[in-house]
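User: Can you help me understand a structure? I only have the sequence.
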Amino acid sequence: MITDSLRIRQPASAYLPLLVPVAGYGIFIGESLFAPPSAGWTFVLFLWTVAAGTFGWWLTTTGGNRLLDWLDRHATGLAVAMIVIAGVAFITVSVLQARYFALSAHAEDTAYYSQILWNTLHGHFLSGNVQQARLFNPPVSNDLALHVSPVLVLGLLPVYALVPHFLTLLIVRDIVLAAAAWPLFVLARDRIGGTAGVAAVILYLANPVVIAQGVEAFYLLHLAPLPFFYALLAFEREDLTRFICWMATAVAVREDVAITMAGFGLWALARRRRRGWAFAGLAFPVAWFALTTLVIQPAFGRWGNNVVEIAWAKGSQPRWGLLELVRGNPLWIIDTLRHGGLDYLYRMLRSVGFVGVAGWEGLVALPGLAANLALARAFYSGTDPISRFALLSACALVGASVVVVSRIGRRPQWDVRVLAVVALVLLPSASLMDGVKDAIRSRLALYTVRNDAAALRDAVGRIPPKASVAAPNYLLPAVASRRELYYVTYLDMYPPARIDYILLDRNSERVTMNPQLRGRYLAWFGTLAGSNEYETVWQRGEYALLSRRASD
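Assistant: Let's start by predicting it. Here is the structure, written out as tokens:
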């Protein structure tokens, strides 16, 4: 229970709960610097701001104190309920997507991880040609060329072995993504009370990138928030042993997680902690990143031959990958900021009301934000504020915001419970609502929702288990349990192959949103339909399943 001494307020600070949401509305209006917001939506958020300010002021009254007392008493139950509701919601969406083939444009990634785990269980360690043969020239044959992820083998593989289905990966993702709110709750509760813990959970679960990624394809980066927040909890408790354990777990998710985790080292240096913290927070993740990218990945075939690195180098193959390109062009940051980088930073920071950068705590988010700006030179998702690449940076900003508020709340003039609600929820609320709206709208545009699920299930059932298959993105996860799998939209990027079965969709809008790819797909569709190499063995509506004719 918060002591009475912490509830004392100076007269000036009593008006801040009324004014802070107005400042948050001003942050939202800042969007007009990059893209004019809708007048109607702007007015709706203005009304919300008025209500939020009124509610913030009411929290300082006797009635508000009774509500805060109730929140303190029931904080743990409320936090658990919110986490469970979020997890169930994510799982429900994943199940519906799988059942109705209503998968995102990036469903290939879910199929890839399902394929490499299935192949590992069947004697082909981390092999998955659907991406390894498409994204590399020459092709590679092991996921260690793409990403170094001990968690994939030590954590996901045993679970996948129990239920070898792509939906297993999505459900694990959903549970871990929602559960990441728990260590954040514990951090805020222990420092400034249960109400702050509830506010921290809301700030995380309402973040647009968390909501967007909770309904996306499966990515390893989705598993990183949980160990990140546990590392943050250990960092604030100054428990070096547990911090090292959680640091090791986090960087084991994927090698590039080490970039964001290095922010702890910068923070430790700014706080002048002893050398052990600087080593564990900075030297360890930097050394791991160097080992994985300069030794392990090249050993498995990655030497500047990845499509992202080639795109960054404008067609050439940089032997040392992205590191070589950053070193070779030190002014890249200015160009990136001019072409979408500033908008990206604004949208990331507004989701926490800029609170996360109101102190040295913001250093924990600096490496991740900078890395995404660098990635944007070759990959548009680098500066997409709701992409998988933004997830861990958003978590760093959320965690930093909680620590900043807990630090400010220790001053005697603040009622820390009111401060937590106002700073962590009401201040960024207008931007969060706007971000969630944009996230839902953009994600709906990326989903295939007009499929005939019964027809597709019939088609999948006709394909022999050991046959190689080429299919549209929305069908790839359902046929991923096989040695060879091909993304039909990008067949030209694979080495020549004799594919046993090809599923075609005459509705090219379901296959790709890219007009250039759509035209190429339709031309290839007509060529294949008239080919003597394949025969149509099944057809329903706009779908057709082709089988390669037996050789004489």
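Now, to help you interpret it: The CA atoms of residues 215 and 486 lie 24 Å apart. The radius of gyration is 25 Å. Let me know which part you'd like to focus on.
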